[in-house]
Structure to design on (191 residues):
């Protein structure tokens, strides 16, 4: 009798679980979203501003590098033209000067690359910090259980309706407004 009672209770428990669990699983369905951080960095206002700032830095560094390159080429040309008429000692002196200029040129290139890389990391880090805050807020408000970054090789497939990147960019731009140069200039008022 006791065995029958245990089997009956276990059967009722399994039946109740099978009946109740679909209702719970529908309510507990996990929401997942995908965010393309590369797109966010390239299309957000702060990302566009950072890109312009970085391009300005690159342009200024490039002009200094180009100037040094021209000086090296000019000295090479001078050495070639004068090699027949100058003394061996004067030629050696010019060649040493050329070597020094080439070393300076290489150092400037290396320093410039390091500075640009550092500035890019700094700007990207600032954008990503704010992006994480915005993504967390959207995830909490939207009831998302998981938000993944769309990255090559990381997410193999996802339905486009999971992509909330545009929503994140919109909220990001609202959370981190960028001053525009035209707006910051004082506009004359008409009387």
């Amino acid at each position: 009798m006791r065995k029958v009672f245990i089997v009956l209770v276990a059967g009722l428990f399994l039946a109740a679980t099978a009946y109740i669990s679909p209702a719970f699983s529908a309510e507990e369905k996990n929401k997942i979203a995908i965010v393309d951080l590369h797109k966010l960095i390239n299309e957000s206002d702060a990302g566009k501003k950072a890109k312009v700032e970085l391009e300005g830095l690159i342009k200024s560094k490039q002009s200094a590098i180009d100037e040094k390159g021209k000086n090296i080429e000019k000295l090479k040309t001078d050495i070639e033209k004068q090699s027949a008429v100058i003394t061996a000692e004067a030629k050696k002196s010019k060649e040493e000067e050329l070597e020094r200029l080439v070393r300076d040129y290489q150092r400037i290139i290396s320093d410039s690359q390091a500075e640009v890389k550092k500035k890019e990391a700094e700007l990207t880090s600032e954008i990503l910090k704010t992006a994480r805050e915005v993504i967390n807020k959207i995830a909490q408000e939207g009831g998302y259980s998981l938000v993944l970054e769309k990255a090559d090789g990381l997410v193999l497939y996802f339905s486009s309706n999971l992509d909330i990147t545009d929503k994140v960019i919109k909220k990001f731009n609202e959370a981190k407004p960028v001053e525009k140069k035209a707006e910051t200039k004082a506009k004359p008022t008409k009387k």
